[in-house]
Amino acid sequence: MISGILLQITQPAGAIADTLVSGALPVEAAGEIKLSIWELALKGGWIMLPLALMSLFAVYIFIERYIIINRASREENNFMNNIRDFIHNGRIDSALSLCKNNHSPIARMIEKGIIRIGKPLNDVNAAIENVGKLEVAKLEKNIAGLATVAGAAPMIGFLGTVIGMVRAFYDMSMAGNNIDIGLLSGGIYQAMITTVAGLIVGIIAYICYNILVARVEKVVFILEARATEFIDLLHEPAS
Hints:
It is found in: Cell membrane; Membrane. Keywords: Cell membrane, Membrane, Protein transport, Transmembrane, Transmembrane helix, Transport. It comes from Lentimicrobium saccharophilum. It is a multi-pass membrane protein. One of its GO terms (biological process) is protein import. It contains nine helices and no strands. The chain is mostly helical and about 240 residues long. It folds into two domains: about 35-70 and about 145-225; about 75-140 and about 230-235, no CATH class. Helix 3 packs antiparallel against helix 8, helix 4 packs antiparallel against helix 5 (about 90-100) and helix 6 packs parallel to helix 9 (about 180-235). The longest helix is centred in the last third of the chain and has 55 residues, at about 180-235. It is rod-shaped, with a radius of gyration of 34 Å.
């Protein structure tokens, strides 16, 4: 009885020993299959090329616009106070020189208002608003391209998905009864990889677009505040 129990206990151990001696490895010890980003991109097919170009375009536009918008949002300390002192003292030329030396949308907008001093305030206000709109339009240059990438990249990825599935079903139809998983892997790879790539590019472009829009809105708020401050300045009596 005891020998029978010992036989049952030692038999799995012997099987494990035989497995180790024979060189077979457990599943956990098997080597992992690793794929680089380049290999995944190649398996995605030609659809990955426009997605790669769109991602580069989105990154370039975001960095270039972010730097310009960030520079436009900066204000020189006491700029409006100096403009107020110059105008109240009748030093219009000094106020214009200050604006020309300050390369910012605010300075260009105030410069236009100073040039129009002496005309009706409605004309001065209209001139300032026109310059402000032009400056905002310059800041918004190419930002719409990010919105286009955010919307088009997932659609292109889905196009790659459809093409990959069509390829997989075509291979199945041509294989007949000799269907091999290797025949389907190429189409399924393309279908999945292009979807993931399109979504990644679209999400990144969408986030970048919203960041830039928020920055532009901040600049618009500053421009409106300084335009109102300048018009109020013209209503103030000279000291």
